[in-house]
Design goal:
The protein is α+β, with helices and mostly antiparallel strands and 280 residues long. The protein is built from nine helices and ten strands. It starts with a helix and ends with a helix. Belongs to the IMPACT family.
């Protein structure tokens, strides 16, 4: 097993749960992938040169108790297409492939059997309840995001967005709008946020969200405090590349945020460097 594959197996199981990707008992080059919330498991063969060469999806079998006939074949065909679309030589691809498979399966869900009428009616009612907020988000004007340069290390990518905000409601709406309208942001491993807002009568509002990256949101908020930034929010998206970065990831998160603040004209390069040094 290559180091890249070993790291990818660990990453996939840490993101989607133990047992999502396990080595087959009959062939050490084959792994069994059970995509989250799907009824089939997929047999994937990794060549010795992976990720320089693509993996092969060699078969599938139904594992769900209530999987409908044809689900396994459909998921096998879709995943083969997905691997072909997301794989790039030298780049691990399973995380992107799983997320793309989930997206395509969600888009293709159509009730086909009469006995599922009750389930479909419940689904339709739920969809109707969710439709209005989604439409409201889609009708919102695009937030005035200023984007950082992308920062890439060991195939993980970090990208920051900042925007002026004047209320907590506006900041929360900007986050919801981004996740509702931007596919790449929606499938990011983490979307970490922080904002600082001055309200009326001397009130202030500060908040942050790690989105699963422990302590990342509070570090973003601390960066904004050091820079004395107000009435602005920042979202840093991270797409995991299959390699653990350790504490280095926090430096990259803050570096992306700082770059967005500079590009927005909220702070100069010199001020940014000075503030960074003062925190030592």
């Amino acid at each position: 097993m290559s180091e890249e594959l070993r790291d990818e197996v660990e990453a996939i199981n840490s993101i989607y749960g133990d047992g999502c990707l396990v080595q087959a008992s009959d062939d050490p080059s084959v792994y069994i992938l059970t995509p989250p919330e799907e009824s089939s498991s997929l047999r994937i063969q990794f060549p010795p040169a992976y990720p320089a060469e693509p993996p092969s999806v060699i078969g599938t079998n139904s594992t769900g108790e209530h999987g409908r006939r044809g689900d396994a074949a459909r998921e096998l065909s879709l995943f083969r297409e997905v691997i072909g679309s997301v794989y790039e030589p030298g780049m691990v691809c399973l995380f992107d492939a799983i997320e793309e498979l989930k997206r395509r399966l969600e888009e293709s869900v159509v009730p086909e059997e009469a006995e599922e009428e009750e389930t479909f009616e419940a689904y339709a009612e739920e969809a109707a309840e969710d439709a209005q907020p989604t439409q409201d988000l889609l009708n919102m004007p695009e937030p005035p995001w200023i984007l950082s340069d992308p920062f890439v290390e060991l195939r993980s990518t970090f990208l920051a967005r900042c925007a002026p905000v004047t209320s907590v409601t506006q900041a929360e709406g900007y986050v919801q709008h981004l996740l509702a309208t931007d596919k790449k942001a929606r499938v990011a491993t983490h979307n970490m946020t922080a904002w600082r807002i001055k309200g009326p009568n001397g009130t202030t509002f500060q908040d942050c969200d790690d989105d699963g990256e422990t302590a990342a949101g509070s570090r973003l908020l601390h960066l904004m405090q050091l820079m004395d930034l107000w009435d602005v929010m920042v979202i840093v998206s991270r797409w995991y590349g299959g390699h653990k970065l350790g504490p280095r990831r926090f430096a990259l998160i803050n570096q992306a945020a700082r770059d967005a603040f500079v590009k927005a004209g909220l702070v100069t390069e010199q001020q940014s460097s000075k503030k960074k040094g003062s925190a030592k």
